[in-house]
Amino acid sequence: MDFVPHDDLSVKEMLKIIGVSKLDDLFHDIPKDLHLEKLDLPSSLSEPDLLRKLEEIANKNKLYSSAFLGAGCYYHYIPSLVDFVISRSEFYTSYTPYQAEASQGYLQAIYEYQTIISRLTQMDVANASMYDGSTALAEAAIMATIITNKKSIMMLEGIHPEYLEVVKTYCWGQNILIKSATEDNLLNKLDNDDAAVLFQNPNFFGDINDISQLAKDVKQKFPNCLLIQVMTDPTCLGILKPPGETNIDIFVAEGQSFGINPSFGGPGLGIFATKQKFLRKIPGRLIGKTKEINGEKEGFLLTLQAREQHIRREKASSNICTNQALCSLAALTYLLALGRTGLRKVAIQNIQKSNYVKRELSKVPGYKILNVKPTYNEFLIQCPNLDAFIEHCYKMNLLPPLKITKFYPEMKGTALVCVTEMNSKKSIDNFIKAAKIALKNNEDGERI
Question: In the list 138, 144, 261, 387, which could disulfide-bond 195, CB 3.0-4.6 Å?
């Protein structure tokens, strides 16, 4: 059925009231050469024909038996409970909970999400409604400059390159100076004008660093410099020391690994947690629990919002207003379904399987593991014929690892391999087999 909001008589009456004779008069400010006389659309289809057309388009998607690609978006097992909960209409169609009295269910879900993230990270407070990991990191950088009243930040080597670009974009608009350093020269490059040190752990290359020592060194020399940690796969919190135990001031992460399908690269979920003393500078919104004025019945409400829509513009610390609550609900359901021991098992499998792949790949002549430190589910591998390796992964129906020259052109022949609990023994064996076949092609001089 066609959707016709107004009949001709209604249109004429409205035009008369606003003082124009025809609809085209509403667009007189738009140049004529930009007007479209007719949209170039295909003819309409019946419902059966439309379904067949959509199936035809969907069949173009390639489904791989297993993936060895990570770099910020990961394949993890998602319990069936997650999709069941987030598909319920009262959650799936909810909007930003501006009316507390009409949004108690969703407000409670967000409150529980904040609680579980605080407990998982051992940070004092966590917010809701950040877009993704990269924008959460950028918001954290701006928050640090507001807290310290300084206009420069230090980025430590090893942060996801795409996260770096997002931070640069946000900071450009705020006139914030971005400096960079390595782990070795950080303390020499830092000065009292720096608001914060931003670092990723485990870093983009999978390395697990000693955060306790880093925090101790920085705080000892620059006590007013904040420490901001970012993670792209927080399932590692099932086994690694939480940021709250290492004197981290602000912790951010990409929550996609917590029950959200990789899909076509989104949506994501920005996890954001901080210390109690920075509560009023946190972006997004905070949900709180309260009681009736004249009673004991509990309820939930929007406690704090840092956006200029709700407070004086000059007091606002952020412009973020999205409602990522469906994604945070997925993360909450995922973490509740797994529990403390379940997340630990996931983390252990990630470490064990990735170490197994590292060991087996290093046995193949010409393949070299480049990581010196312990790693979590990702690592760098030098390949004698990376193009052939990737091609044979495709032939074996495996999503190949990341060709690292996409971000680091100088690192030729290097791949970033990711292994999670979703990689079976069979898929890992095929992955190693692809590496051996690629080596043989390289030796035989075959070009692929």
Answer: 144
Report how far apart, in Å, the C-alpha atoms of 219 and of each of 155, 211, 222 are: 16, 12, 5
**Angle at the Cα of 137 (from 134 to 140), degrees rounded to 5?**
155
CA dist., res. 91 & res. 105, Å (int): 8
Kind of pairing, strands 402-403 and 270-274?
unpaired
Q: Is 435 left (phi over 0), alpha (psi -120 to 50) or beta?
A: alpha
Tokens representing 66?
């297993």
Residue 53 lies in a domain: no
Whether residues 189 and 137 fall in one domain: yes
Residues 417, 353: Cα–Cα separation, whole Å: 12
223/229 Cα distance (integer angstroms): 17
User: Do 195 and 145 reside in the same domain of the chain?
Assistant: yes
CB 197 within 8 A of CB 225: yes
Q: What is the CATH number of the domain that holds 151?
A: 3.40.640.10
CATH number where 422 lies: 3.90.1150.10
Query: Same domain, yes or no, for 299 and 419?
Result: no
Say if strands 378-382 and 414-418 run parallel, antiparallel, or are unpaired.
antiparallel
Same domain, residue pair 99 and 216: yes
Does some domain include residue 37? no
Report the predicted TM-score, pTM, of the whole model to 2 decimal places. Answer: 0.88
First-to-last alpha carbon distance for the chain, in angstroms, is 53
Of the spans 30-44, 67-81, 296-310, which averages the highest pLDDT?
67-81
CA torsion sign, 373 to 240 to 209 to 327? positive
Q: What is the pLDDT of residues 347-404, one digit of tens each?
A: 999 999 999 999 999 999 999 999 999 999 999 999 999 999 999 999 999 999 999 9
Identify the residue whose tokens are 């409150």.
111
Domain that holds residue 86: 80-336
Residues 356 and 272 in one domain: no
Q: Provide the 10 A C-beta neighbour count for residue 116.
A: 18
257 Cβ contact list (under 8 Å, min separation 6): 74, 76, 233, 234, 235
Last-in-domain residue among 271, 301, 336: 336
